[in-house]
Amino acid sequence: MSTLTLTGAAFADTIHENDIVLVDFWAAWCGPCRMFAPIFENASAQHPDVVFAKVDTEAERELAGQAGITSIPTLMAFRDGILLYSEPGALPAAALEEIIDAIKALDMDAVRREIAEHRDGSVTQP
C-alpha cells in the first residue's frame, strides 16, 4: 500500500475510520524528512493492514499547528482513534518496525481503561 497525502479536511476521518494510522509530518525542504520518506514508504508496503499517511507541513500549516508539530519529521501513531505515539526525528527502519509491532500488540481495552481511569482521576500519580 502506498502512503496517503493527508489534509486537514480528511485528518479526523482517516484517524477514526481506520484501525491503525501512522502519520508522517514532513516538508520538502527538510533533509531528515527526505531521508525518512523511503523508510516510511517501504514500511507501508510491509504492513498493508496499516494506513500510512503524510502531512506536508508547508501546505497544511493549520493542521500541523493543531497537531502541535514543532519539529519535523514527526511521526504520530494512532490506533482505534487514540494517539499512542508522537515523536520528532527520522527513524531507522528497525525502530519504525518496533513501533508498528508494539502498536499492533497493544491490548486496546486496557489502554481505554487506563485513559478512563486517568480522566476520572481514579489513578494517583507517584
UniProtKB/TrEMBL annotation:
One Pfam family this sequence matches: Thioredoxin
Keywords noted in UniProt: Disulfide bond, Electron transport, Redox-active center, Transport
TM stretches of this protein: none
A single MF term (Gene Ontology): protein-disulfide reductase activity
Superkingdom, taxonomy of origin: Bacteria
KW Transport (keyword) present: yes
GO cellular component annotations of the record: cytosol
SUPFAM superfamilies recorded: Thioredoxin-like
Start and end residues of each Thioredoxin domain: 1-105
Xref: InterPro entries: Thioredoxin, Thioredoxin-like_sf, Thioredoxin_CS, Thioredoxin_domain
NCBIfam families for the chain: thioredoxin (TIGR01068)
UniProt family annotation: Belongs to the thioredoxin family.
PANTHER family xref list: GEO12009P1, THIOREDOXIN 2
Name of this protein: Thioredoxin
Organism per entry: Cellulomonas humilata
Gene: trxA
